Amino acid sequence: MQGKGLITLVAVILGLICLNELLPTWYAGKIEKQATEFAGNNPEKYKKELARLSKDTLNLGFTKLYYSRAKEREMKLGLDLKGGINVLLEINHRDLVNDLTNYSTNPILIETLNRTDKDQKNSTKAYIENFFTEFEAVNAEKKTNLKLADPEIFGNTNLSEIKYNTTDAEVKNIIRRKIEASEGAAYEVIRTRIDKMGVTQPNVQKVPGTGRISVEMPGSKDIDRVKKMLQTSAKLQFWEVQQPQEILPYFEQLNALISAKGDSIGVPKTTNLVSLMQLNSLRANGVGNIKLSDTAIVNKILNSDLAKKLRPTNIKYSQFVWGYKPEANDENNLVLYALRGNINQKAPVDGAVESARVNYDEMGRVVVDMQMDSKGSKDWKTMTAKNVNKPVAVTLDNIVYTAPNVVNEIPNGRTQISGNFSQQEAQDLVDVLGAGKLPASAKIVQADVVGPSLGAESINAGILSFIIAFLVIVAYIIFYYGGAGVFAVIAMIINLFYIFGIMDSVDATLTLPGIAGIVLSMAMAVDTNVIIYERTKEELFAGKNILEAYRDGFKHALSAIIDGHSTTLLTALVLYVFGTGPIKGFAVTLIIGILMTFFTSVLLSRVMIFARLNKGKGLSVWTPLTKNLFRNVWIDFIGKRKYAYIISAVLTIASLISMKVNGFKYGIDFTGGRNYVVRFDKPVDADNIEKSLIKQFQTADGKNSAVEAKTFGSGNQLKISTDYLIDDESLKADQTIEQKLFEGLKANLPANLTLAQFKSADVDHAGIVSSTKVGPTVADDIKTGGMYAVIAALGGIFLYILMRFRKWQFSLGAVVGLAHDAIIILGVYSLLHKYMPFNMEINQDFIAAILTVLGYSINDTVIVFDRIREYLREKKSLTLAGLFDDSISSTLGRTFNTSFTTILVILAIFIFGGDNLRGFMFALLLGIAFGTYSSIFVSSAIAYDFLKGKGGKEEKLHGRTSVDVEVIDKRTKK
Question: Any transmembrane segments, and where (predicted)?
Fold first, then answer.
């Protein structure tokens, strides 16, 4: 065999690289297991034992292993396997544009920004591109002929490279570069903050073309702390504080307005704003001391258009800002401050911090001392001199940390922040200030949180499903192919070793969908071996000796294998390009699996088999029970195609009707919102809990938000979804919803369970085991990306089939078959989503499943088409119908074996792989079944009918498979 030396060399080198990459994971796991065995459940003991064991090294000759280095290099586990948090941060691009325009108040600019904000909710374009489009539109409508280089737009002192005669096209390029630089600066600041948190194996990446930053921190447990660290922009500002006597007349006017027009504001007319302010308990220079439960309604009133129009001149530009957190002796109330603003809302002091440290004041309270930069020091001196004996508020990201009275002028830029801090909160603030400020505010537009207990359960479920699937494949392939099956198993084991090693070497993260991708790669490896061995069997039945049969089997199978791998690879690439998070992880493992499957099952397997055959040893390709299975099977598929058309038409029409009548249950990644998987210590009634939560999640105007509670896996676990505060992506909104969720579920939770325990459930108590948040803008992007992914996959497959088979009829048949499969799967999901005990939402996981099904279905179709193409060259005397029947019948063995083993594998994951994968696997099960059906009865039939239409009327005689010389054509004997 040519090239066997090179293949062997590549296999050995690849094996050594993978071994070197996987050894640290093995060693780190070994040390941690020893520490756990010694310490049990005692965390302090575990740390001490781990520190002791970390001093040891393992010298293997070619490398030395020690724990700390091995821990850095071990394989990354996704948060669905390890627990933790995955967030998508979005930099506020309006802030960036405001900064570049030097906070201009030009009405054209303001209207453009407002329109761009609205556009962004339903657009996948970058913010700045929508801004440029809207600027031109507003300019045209107002007939102002304003240029981007105008001093009131971008031609200000902050952008010296823009001159009065700079063209709009040149300005656009300059602004794009500035925005990109700001995004890069934000990325560096976020990465520095995460490093200061000491998170193990964080993954921070820029999402190209979106201005977003993806952050994954497996193992993180203090979720609120993580969110706060990531969203804080470190925008430190100092504002003058307005006193209650300046604001009270406005509140009284607002009260009268609410009693007359409360409905138009969205609050009951009986609402008493002055009463909500609790003016008799004012503290800390605030204008209100509001109950935590009333903060949402106060926000709604003060931010309403009617309230803003009512403002008198002295507070026209005032900002109402909340305090950092409740005072220690008043835990149920939050202080509201009125900060004196101006037309461009630019703070009198907005300086960066040169240094910050944790300290204690004269009363022993934790404070943060800081030193401003030169500009900030100068502005601070001016402001303190102007406001002696008056209050000044210190704000960070529009939250007041402290608002003391100025005693005297502060000339050196030193100041102190107090805010009822804990030691950890103060240290986090110091870390945030030390890492530098973000160029604009940031918000979490998507978040996935998985508790450690669920992560451990996912690992166990993933490993169990993996082992069962592997054993099923091993048993079946050896049972069916005998000695050749043993070589297939050896190749598959090497394949798995390579997949894990390469994933580790490219720093890929292993996720639960990734495990599913690896298992599907094993199914593909089986498919590859099935194609080779079925062709080898055909050659043996044709009378060739064992060496020739294997040689021709590999040769004739290669074309079909390349086509099958290429179409699946195309689908995986589409998933990688359009997918996010776990779906991208699934795509990465599938891509690696496809490439390694080809290398091990085609090239390396061939080297191993011929090494045996060339020594004169035999190698069976069947067992006594399987030798003649499918051998003499010949079915008149084309003659029965009209029945198949009727069945497919009925199923398709029924699916379309169900979609129209029943609709779908869309996941929050398509609609936006939040969902929580909550575990209880006993079985609960989902319907009763849903009714209880609907009362909790009422908006300020008394309307109910959408809430759904559904059993998730076992009876003591619910998946709860809501669109309450869907447009509010702040940490405060997250905390409000978690509080309401806790209150609504209290009757079904253990009596002594605290809110903190509820928010991070562990194996010992009930509570939230995972949560997901998706903002409406991200939801629109995901939905659009999913649609593009399906279109791209179908278009790519059509072009590939056209290129490989040179006939558009084959491409048409393939795409019609794929559309048939997708519609029926959608119909089943539409019909059953209310009744199945597992997740049947239409979300990005479902899109990934559909694309995987398309990849499998086209793989199956390509095998049949490849045989048709072969027969078109070799069997000129047959009628077209006979040729199609021959082709389909001769590949039935391969079709059955591949579909059967794949279904067994998917069933193993469906049953044992955990609740999160059941919906995904159910779609795959449907897809395999209908994909097998459509490749025979739809794709092939469509291709036949359109090819026949080109050649005119056809004879009724059907041919039979010519490679099986033992079959006697009974019709010729008649």
Answer: 459-479, 486-503, 515-533, 554-579, 585-609, 643-661, 785-803, 810-831, 846-865, 896-914, 920-947
Tell me the C-alpha distance between 604 and 590, whole Å: 19
Domain check: are 92 and 189 in the same one? yes
| Residues 401, 385 share a domain | yes
Tell me the residue range of the domain where 631 lies: 451-658+780-948
Q: Which of 367, 366, 370 is nearest to 355 (CA)?
A: 370
Q: pLDDT: is 107 or 913 the higher one?
A: 107
Total number of domains in the chain = 5
Q: Say if CB 693 and CB 744 are below 8 A apart.
A: yes
Q: Is residue 323 part of a domain?
A: yes
Per-residue model confidence as pLDDT tens digits over 413-449: 887 777 667 777 777 777 766 666 677 777 777 777 7
- Collect all residues with Cβ–Cβ distance below 8 Å to 453 and sequence separation of at least 6: 83, 761, 762, 763, 769
Looking at the DSSP assignment, which residues form a beta bridge with residue 704?
698
Residue-wise pLDDT tens digits, 654-671: 999 999 898 888 877 777
β-strands 414-418, 319-322 pairing: unpaired
Which of 13-17, 199-203, 376-380 shows the lowest per-residue confidence on average (mean pLDDT)? 199-203
Predicted TM-score of the model (pTM): 0.69
Instruction: Indicate whether 183 pLDDT > 50.
Output: yes
Last residue of a domain, one of 736, 751, 774: 774
766 and 849 fall within a common domain: no
Token pair of 326, please?
């409740």
CATH of the domain at 291: 3.30.1360.200
CA angle centred on 304, ends 300 and 308, rounded to 5°: 130
User: Are 786 and 768 members of one domain?
Assistant: no
User: Do 281 and 351 lie in a common domain?
Assistant: yes
Q: Would you tell me the crossing angle of helices 93-100 and 107-120 to the nearest 10 degrees?
A: 160
Asked whether the predicted pLDDT for residue 896 surpasses 90, the reply is no
Neighbours of 246 (CB within 10 A): 16
Concatenate the DSSP letters of all residues of 716-739 into one string.
TEEEEEE-TTTT--SHHHHHHHHH
Nearest residue to 669 via CA among 447, 496, 452? 447
CB 157 within 8 A of CB 102: yes
Summarize pLDDT for 446-471 with one digit per residue, the tens.
Answer: 777 776 666 566 667 777 877 888 88
Band (pLDDT 50/70/90 cuts) for residue 672 is: confident
